[in-house]
Amino acid sequence: MLREELPKIITDTLPGPKASEIIERRKKATPSAIRCVYPCVIKRGEGAMIEDVDGNYFLDWVGGVGVLNMGYSKPEVVEAVTEQAQRFFHSMFNITTHEGYVALAEKMNEIAPVKGEVKKTFFTNSGAEADENAVKIAKAFTKRPNIIVFTGAFHGRTALTMAMTSKKSYAVGMGPFPDGVYRAPYPYLYRKPEGMTEEEAINFYLKKLNDVFEEASPAEYVAAIVLEPLQGEGGFIPAPIEWVKAVRKICDEKGIMLVVDEVQSGFCRTGKMFASCYWAEAGCAPDILATAKSIAAGVPLSAIVAREEIMESVPGGVIGGTFGGNALACASALKVIDIMEKEDFAGKAMTIGNKLRDRFNGLKEELPVIGDIRGLGAMIGIEFVKDPVTKEPNTELVTKLVQYCANHGLLIENAGTYLNVVRFLAPLVITDEQLEAGMKILEDGIRELS
Fold it and tell me: Is the CB of residue 350 less than 8 Å from the CB of residue 272?
């Protein structure tokens, strides 16, 4: 079966002849702004493996950029979606109630680590929609206009979420952006100010956050502080828990909603169902959670969860939409969560992450281009530098490494402000043999290119 295979390239060149033809058709039919640097055209996928149209096998460590924690074509999920499709595809929740939406909302209320005993959930289609709706809810509850976001953040490509996103290469020529979005430095401890201890750096970043209230928006006008518990596009940077505790305290003191963007980090990727479960265990749970990507194994769906008093502050008609909570997506998500809980996907993530850390931490002394290895669970980032002392980003190496790995049957993706981080987002159903094969391809690439 494909799900048990290892990387194997059988064509003389990549892309192969059939893939080349389709890629040429792509160039003529679709915008070049939607880039793709990978030399393969998928025919089918199972587990963590892709077979392309030319018969090459690729091990996928990108997983649709965090969408496929459950892997490709999980039979039980396929069965659940098929069963739903045989009854009906869609029924707008504003018009007719369907039980799948209600059951999934009940399940999300049970597992989401937000503050409050009684919670409510509603569904949209994408991560950007979830983030934007989380902000709308925070504004409705607080009656305040502004939000604070962070350097390195990625929240989406709608008008508001482009403003929230730090890297403006995602928003070239798209201004002016919505007002009321202010930015503070995110605690990037690998690149903290020189000479500071971690404790001193955390205090430094907290001061910078408090400076926003003095220099940009008074606290009484801030509806929400929005952050990723582990930055995705920003370079797989975990928020230090002591910093999160302090941010939670600031929010409590100033009446600000703490909104967690778990679009990429949710659904067992970090060794918990949500990365903010770590926050809840430390006594600093968020007020509002936005999540998407792996929620439904590839069927478009996103969710927003908050305690009842926050949700019920929203005026009628302000939230909702035609496709939010689509019946096929809800059926998929219910089965995904059931499997993840029964088969301990959070434990799988911890095992995978520990193997990755052990392997590449062991190479740091030998290969000084490896600057930092960080993350939570199986959400691991490896940052590459030209010099371990100056920490000058090694973007060129990572660019070449992406192509090297693809040519050897492994799909990896870059991240980070300087695009010098390799991020690990492989499906959590990856086999031990596939994980070893992928690590060897990556290690061989690092050795050869550095």
Answer: no
